[in-house]
Design goal:
The structure holds two protein chains of two kinds. The longest helix of chain A is centred in the last third of the chain and has 18 residues. Chain A is globular and about 50 Å long. Chain A has seven helices and ten strands. By secondary structure, chain A is an alpha/beta fold. In chain B, the strands form two sheets. In chain B, strands 1, 3, 4, 5, 6, 7, 8, 9, 10, 12 and 13 form an eleven-stranded mixed sheet that branches. In chain B, strands 2-11 form a two-stranded antiparallel sheet. The longest helix of chain B is centred in the last third of the chain and has 44 residues. Chain B is elongated. Classes of the chains: A alpha/beta, B alpha+beta. At the A-B interface, helix 1, helix 2 and helix 3 of A face helix 1, helix 10, helix 11 and helix 13 of B.
Chain lengths: ~220, ~400
């Protein structure tokens, strides 16, 4: 099933060249790797696809509907419900417990927290005994797993991961990618990973490579 | 989690900064609250003490001094007037009631006032114990004096508690103790006019001012007058001031003048309190702004997870509101306690301010709470707008680099 279709996306960031992006279609269950050098616009493209950054030209269709014709509030809500996010540095809120951090995904998307699913995720990801702890009492790997639990709590249609393994050693990078693949498979979600980490390039079914900004510029 | 619980979590996470914000807010509100409570209680005390007194008559001098010394017992008298002059004024057709006051002595700083039982009636005073005086040198003690029925003491000349000119001629005996009235009566020792006059009619042989004291035997200090018609409040002082060597003053007029003069000091204190509130709002702004910088990724994360711009602003505003309201509440409690503490420890406030009334919640508390909350919201406005405008995409790109 087609989830996202982007066409003719172009954007000029302040002080930078105008970036043009290839047209893109994301379907249920797909594993897509988005690669390219630093500054090629990987995060910019992810932001436009997920309703965080309006393109100056082009359109993003989510479930067949033009994402950017929606009001800001509706777009935010839809993003919270249809997308799950994993980041390299944006992990957990230090003021909240692990459980509260994971539940945030439902809270912010305006959904009721599925407590049974949350418990199941904690158990699956080896965090069952640590739900009441705050992030500073957890290891880097545990925090990363908690971030993955938060990303999949709402059973999103698309899991978006931005450089999820860049800061991890080989063992942890492999474990994190495996967890993402497992969770995507379990929920039937598409997995879109922006990365320049050569260790995980073999895991994608499809690669989209962005050219460096100078070559990409129109 | 809603905006409120997110705000609470953020506040808990920055315990020290949050605590300092609350304390700064509390200081301003406490100062404002205490100033308003004391000044309002003083205004009421001034009115309560002057109730039933339309005109005060005494020796020539400052009208304000005459009112302060005879109505509020807060200054030295302008002098004494002859008993015959007082008698003549008492029989003026415009006068409904004239209550004489004979001052001049104290016991441990509590003024001894020679008067008539009308003075007690004027202040709605009643006995807690014993009876009224019947003969000279019997006295009734005010509620704050600590004297009990049966106590005996010698009066000391003047109003200073540490004076050494003791009247050995005759001791006073307390025959009654008054219930608290919330007026100056609470800190007076009341006796007959004759007691004061007789005491000064028999000065000690070694008194330097024996001749002066002998005069007091035929004098009173002031007359508290209630007139028959409102027009006499204006006319009687005018008539007496023009045609006699007496001074007549209207307590309400003099106290209005005093209130205007005191208003400057009150205004300065209020400005100081308002300054504290503004300072605490600026401190809150600084804390929110710096925490916003530190938490920009947290806020960006909330947006990524589906929080609207409005929800982000609401979280910041909730934080400010919780901190400022907590400060205002703490400040209100502190303000009431400070006002109460002052009322029971500052002797000159005795009989002017009712301490128990200072612990009762006032309508003003609500408005101070609103003021505290609004100051907090005003301080949070810029950080809240800034949070809502966060460029998530740019932040994500920077955060990743």
């Amino acid at each position: 099933m087609e989830l996202v279709r982007s066409t003719g996306l172009r954007l000029k960031r302040p002080g930078g060249p105008t970036l043009s992006f290839p047209d893109l279609v994301i379907r249920s269950g797909e594993r897509i790797l988005l690669t390219g050098a630093s500054g090629a616009g990987k995060t910019t493209l992810l932001s436009m696809l997920t309703g965080l950054l309006a393109p100056q030209e082009g359109a993003v269709l989510l479930d067949g509907q033009d994402f950017y014709t929606l009001g800001s509030g509706a777009r935010d809500r839809l993003r919270g419900r249809r997308f799950g996010f994993v980041f390299q540095t944006l992990h957990l809120l230090p003021s909240l417990t692990l459980r509260q951090n994971i539940a945030l995904a439902a809270n912010m998307a305006g959904l009721p927290v599925d407590e049974a699913r949350l418990d199941g995720l904690l158990a699956t990801l080896g965090l069952a005994g640590k739900a009441a702890r705050r992030p500073d009492a957890l290891s880097q790997g545990e925090q990363q797993r908690a971030a993955i639990a938060r990303a999949v709590l709402n059973r999103p249609a698309i899991i978006v991961a931005d450089e999820p393994t860049s800061a991890l050693d080989d063992a942890n990078a492999g474990a994190v990618m495996q967890l993402l693949l497992d969770q995507a498979e379990e929920t039937g979600a598409a997995l879109l990973v922006a990365t320049h980490d050569s260790r995980i390039l073999s895991l994608g079914e499809r690669h989209i490579h962005l050219l460096p900004a100078e070559e990409n510029a129109a | 989690m809603n905006a409120f619980s997110l705000a609470l979590a953020a506040i808990r996470a920055r315990g020290l900064q949050s605590g300092l914000c609350v304390l700064a807010g509390a200081a301003g509100i406490a100062l404002l609250s205490a100033i308003f409570l004391i000044s309002t209680a003083l205004d009421r005390g001034l009115a309560r003490n002057a109730e039933g007194v339309d005109v005060v008559v005494g020796a020539k001098g400052s009208p304000l001094q005459l009112v302060l010394s005879s109505v509020y017992h807060a200054d030295v008298p302008t002098g004494n007037i002859e008993a015959e002059d007082a008698e003549r004024v008492s029989h003026n057709p415009a006068v409904r009631l004239a209550v004489p006051l004979a001052l001049g002595d104290n016991y441990h700083g509590w003024r001894i006032v020679g008067t008539t039982p009308d003075y007690l009636a004027m202040h709605h005073a009643s006995l807690a114990d014993g009876r009224q005086w019947n003969v000279p040198f019997e006295a009734v003690a005010g509620a704050l004096t600590g004297l009990e029925v049966g106590d005996e003491f010698a009066g000391v000349h003047g109003f200073a508690a540490d004076g050494d000119d003791v009247h050995h001629f005759h001791n006073y005996t307390i025959v009654g103790r008054l219930k608290p009235t919330g007026t100056v009566l609470d800190r007076l020792i009341l006796t007959s006019v004759e007691s004061v006059q007789q005491l000064h009619g028999h000065p000690d042989a070694d008194d330097d001012d024996a001749a002066e004291e002998m005069k007091i035997a035929h004098q009173v200090t002031a007359l508290l007058i209630k007139v028959k018609s409102p027009i006499a409040i204006m006319n009687l002082p005018r008539e007496l001031n023009r045609s006699s060597n007496l001074l007549a003053a209207s307590p309400s007029y003099e106290m209005a003048r005093l209130s205007t003069a005191l208003g400057l000091g009150r205004g300065l204190l209020t400005a100081l309190g308002a300054g504290f509130v503004i300072l605490s709002a600026l401190m809150l702004l600084s804390v929110l702004a710096s925490s916003l910088t530190a938490r920009r990724y947290d806020l960006a994360l909330l947006r990524v997870l589906g929080a609207s711009r409005g929800r982000l602003s609401a979280t910041i505003l909730s934080e400010a509101l919780v901190l400022s309201l907590a400060g205002a509440l703490l400040g209100l409690v502190a303000g009431h306690l400070i006002a109460f503490f002052l009322s029971v420890t500052v002797k000159s406030l005795g009989g002017m301010v009712l301490p128990s009334a200072l612990l009762v919640p006032q309508a003003l508390d609500f408005w101070l709470l609103v003021l505290g909350g609004l100051a907090g919201l005003a301080a949070a406005l810029v950080p809240a707008i800034s949070a809502a405008r966060t460029d998530i995409a740019a932040l994500l790109a920077r955060g990743r680099a």
